[in-house]
Amino acid sequence: MNLLRERYRVDLVELQSACEANYARLLRLLPAMRDEPNERRVALSQGDQLLGVLVLQVLEACPYTTTLRVSQEHSLPWLPVPKLEVRVYHDARMAEVVSAENARRFRSIYTYPNAAMHQPDEKTQLNLFLGEWLTHCLACGHELAAVR
Fold first, then answer.
1. Name one Pfam family in it (predicted).
2. Which residues fall within 8 angstroms of residue 15, CB to CB, at 6 or more apart?
3. Chain-centre distance for alpha carbon 103
4. Do residues 51 and 77 touch, judged by C-beta distance below 8 A?
5. Exposed, middle or buried: residue 80 (CB in 10 Å: 0-12, 13-18, 19+)?
6. Counting Cβ atoms within 10 Å, is residue 130 exposed (0-12), middle (13-18) or buried (19+)?
7. What is the pLDDT at residue 125?
8. Could you tell me if 67 and 86 are in contact, meaning their C-beta atoms sit under 8 angstroms apart?
9. How far apart are CA 3 and CA 92, in angstroms?
10. Rounded-to-integer distance, Cα 128 and Cα 125, Å
11. CA triplet 130, 14, 61: central angle to 5 degrees?
12. Where are the beta strands (DSSP E) in the chain?
């Protein structure tokens, strides 16, 4: 029996919703993102154990867009360290992942399998991952420096 997989279709409402929510999360974590240079470190810990430090770094600030690097430092040794580049569109109030690790400019749909082994919905998955990461940081993160 020959079973054909249904072709993936981009859910624009889901993608735009994720990008809008990411903009709101980034604005809470880095309210002065329009100022260059700017950086913020948010510690993630469980009890006394430091699990990592989220680093939000402004790479480029323009009147309508800001480019950020979102990465993690001091991660657990067995955990791969994620690094994302995010373009923030202030006029549209959206934030979109434009680079992850060594891949740039993601297409909306990929045929599968492909040489780079991207998932058919790679762009959507990366933006949803950014949202989950930022949500976790907002819920469990704290300032790195101790309050005196």
1. DUF1249
2. 123, 124, 127
3. 14
4. no
5. exposed
6. buried
7. 84
8. yes
9. 41
10. 5
11. 45
12. 39-46, 49-61, 65-73, 83-89, 94-100, 103-104, 141-143
Please answer whether residues 28 and 54 qualify as being in contact, where contact means their C-beta atoms are separated by less than 8 angstroms.
no
Give CA–CA dist 109/120, Å, rounded: 5
Residues 6+ apart with CB under 8 A from 102: none
Q: How many residues does the chain have?
A: 148
Written as one letter, the residue type at 6 is E
pTM over 0.85: no
- Tell me which H or E stretch contains 25: helix 12-29
Closest listed residue to residue 127, CA positions, set 115, 117, 119, 116: 119
Rounded to whole angstroms, the Cα distance separating 66 from 10 reads 25
Half-sphere exposure of 49 (CA within 13 A, CB side): 4
